[in-house]
Write a structure and sequence with these properties.
The protein is an alpha+beta fold and 174 residues long. 41% of the residues lie in helices and 21% in strands.
Length: 174
């Protein structure tokens, strides 16, 4: 199983993964967030990204104000920088977005350890499903995403899951 907590796996990945590795390392994005236990999640790590996929980084903050100040100080001058607060899964969340080169980057933080956040759990489950279902399934997911499906609803559709895809996927067993 890939260790997604360390982005070294991207170096030997596909072209987009290698490009993501270069952006993240040259701009020291994860090292600037190191105190918040950052993990790159989403479609690029598991090779189901499409043309406009962004780099999603989740973080664990203990103090919301410190986290917001850090995001503003290290990324506030990046192109199209925005930061907002939201309640997601009944938890206070901080979301910062910005662009570096061609990549949109989203930094998402909650007061929940990163490996316990739903975004990470979804990615691990999706990765396991992709490993078990093979290349045709992966290509079908990409086709659905190109048609406008979000990732979790695409998986739920192909797996025949009923109800909220974000919840159903967490309960999915191979």
């Amino acid at each position: 199983m890939t260790d997604f907590s360390n982005i070294e796996y991207l170096k030997s990945g596909n072209q987009q993964q290698q490009k993501a590795y270069k952006i993240l390392t040259q701009n020291r994005i994860l090292s600037k967030l190191a105190e918040f236990d950052p993990i790159l999640i989403g479609t690029i790590p598991i090779n189901i990204d499409i043309e406009n996929s962004d780099l999603d980084i989740i973080c664990y903050w203990k103090n919301k104000i410190d986290f917001k100040e850090k995001l503003n100080s290290v990324f506030g001058k990046e192109n199209e920088f925005t930061i907002r607060e939201a309640i997601i899964n009944e938890k206070e969340s901080i979301i910062a977005n910005f662009k570096i080169n061609d990549f949109e980057i989203e930094v998402f933080g909650q007061n929940t350890p990163t490996k316990n956040q739903n975004g990470y759990k979804h990615m691990i489950i999706e990765h396991e499903i992709l490993q078990s279902k093979g290349e045709n399934f992966r290509l079908e997911i990409i086709k659905l995403k190109q048609k406008g499906y979000k990732t979790e609803p695409a998986f739920a559709f192909l797996l025949g899951l009923k109800g909220d895809p974000y919840i159903e996927l967490l309960d999915y067993k191979l």
